[in-house]
Each structure stands twice: as structure tokens, then as C-alpha cells.
């Protein structure tokens, strides 16, 4: 009997490869924000909430949604926290607007140094206006590289001395562009998620700004992803310890844990947001894309195996069904069985 434990890293990578192939071959690639505004709005709310929560922001998702949709600050949190979310959301909105066809990159390049600074400026200006970093010089504001050395991280990693930051960042941007060119013509030497993990970790190791490096690093990672035609990722606040641990392992050259975390986040974006919305109600999609708050993946798989859910199993072993079929299954599941009134008379 095969165990039902957590899928292996290799299995996660294979699932991501299949999901990305399906996105491109069956659904025509990543929908743009103009084509699928509601999808991107959902991701926008989640990312603005969770990415700032990873850094200690205490706004709950409902407060974030109200702030972004209505411009109202509900609750009684410090102004700094609302401005952190607002700034991050502004930067993320610009990033999502870059969801273009692969190859149609700004200035012919996947990423520029000016864009990295622009992302930091957009994300940090609102909070800087009310709570600037206490140690910052006037020349270290949003969009400007640090002019301070950073204390060693808790695991011992030491960012480069501040005079080296501009050169190191220019080298990092060149490395990102080179990785993009290689991905466009051939399979990478290491799994795609680990290429992304290496690039993300190297940004954080440079730590180019006096504050806001984590937020900027995740935003720039998503900028690279959407320009390559991949879905953006959201690292959830409940994953904070796993994320920090994976980053520490990446500091030593082991990108597996961080790569797996990124791969799972990409799959979640595909399954939770993109695939169910770009597929019509009768179109077959993986069962994982049809899960909701009332129906688990295990329940759908069991219903498919028992023939209670109209579904097919492909040669890759993945069960597929449609929203229409799942709705019919849920309706039949909740129908009340007729009682035998004759027996009681």
C-alpha cells in the first residue's frame, strides 16, 4: 500500500511543470490584469496582507481588503501599519501590470536596476512618510541604496559592506536577465523553482536597502515571474518559520527547501485563482483547482474514484473534472433521500 504522506520535492516540481504546461497549452497562458481583474484583485489582497504580515504587520485580511477596496482604515492599528500595506499594494499593482507576453520586456530586458529601486520606492514611501527608519541618512530614503553596514544575520550571514552594494546589485540584475534568457531557450540546469530560489536568496543576501528588503525582494521575484509568464507567488504568514529556515539553508547554497516553497506557492496561485477562472464551467481542470471551503481535494478524489463525480483520470494519473460537474455532485450529495411513507401507514 502506497503511503499518503507529503509529496516529495521531485513530485511537487513535476506537478508544477504539468500545471504550467497546461496553463500555456490549454488556457493560452497567464491572463493579464485587464482580462481577469477579479483574479488579480484576489491575489493582490492576499499578497499585500501576507507579505507585510511576514514582517510583523498586524492588519488582518478583512482590514486589508477594506483599505485597498474602499480606502478606509478600519480597526485601531498604528498609521504606520496601514501605510505599510498601502505602499506594498501600490508596488504590487504596478508589478501585476507587467504581466506581459514572455519576451515583451521593458527595454528588451527582464529586469533593470532602476525598476528594483522603483519597486522599493513605491513600497516604502507611504510608511517612510510617517515612520522613517531611525538610523537612515537623508540619502537613504525609499529607492536609494543603504549607506550603512548591516549587522550579521542571526544565522551568521553577513551582507556586503555598503560601498559594494551598487556593483553587487548591478551584477545581480545581470544574473537575473541571463537566467531569463536561458529559460526562454532551454530547460535550466537546475529545477526552475530552485533557479528562482537562488535569485531571490541572492537579493536578500545583498540586502541593498536600509529597510524593506524582504518586501522588495518578494515583489521583485513576482515581477520576474509575471514577465516570464508565470503566476505570482504569495508566501503566507503561517509559513514564516519555514520561509526563514529555507532562506538560511539557501545562504549555504542549498536551494531545495526554498525552491519547494516557491513551487508550492506557484501551484497554489494556479489552482486557487487562475485555472478555475480562465476555464469555462464545463472545461476539465485538475481536481485541485476545484477545491473550495466546503469540499476538500480528498473528498473530490474519492467521489471521482467511486463514480459519484463526473471526472476522468489522465495518463499522468491526475483526475480532472469541471465546475459544472462538481456543482452537480454537491447538489446531489445534499439532496434528501425520499422517505418510504407507505411503510409508516
Automatic annotation (TrEMBL):
Keywords: ATP-binding, Nucleotide-binding. ATP binds at residues 211-218. The active site is at residue 207. SUPFAM superfamilies: Fic-like. GO terms for molecular function: ATP binding. The record marks 55 as: Important for autoinhibition of adenylyltransferase activity. Residues 324-345 are annotated as: Disordered. Pfam families: Fic. Residues 111-264 form the Fido domain. PANTHER family: FIDO DOMAIN-CONTAINING PROTEIN, FIDO DOMAIN-CONTAINING PROTEIN DDB_G0283145. This is Filamentation induced by cAMP protein Fic. It comes from Catenulispora acidiphila (strain DSM 44928 / JCM 14897 / NBRC 102108 / NRRL B-24433 / ID139908).
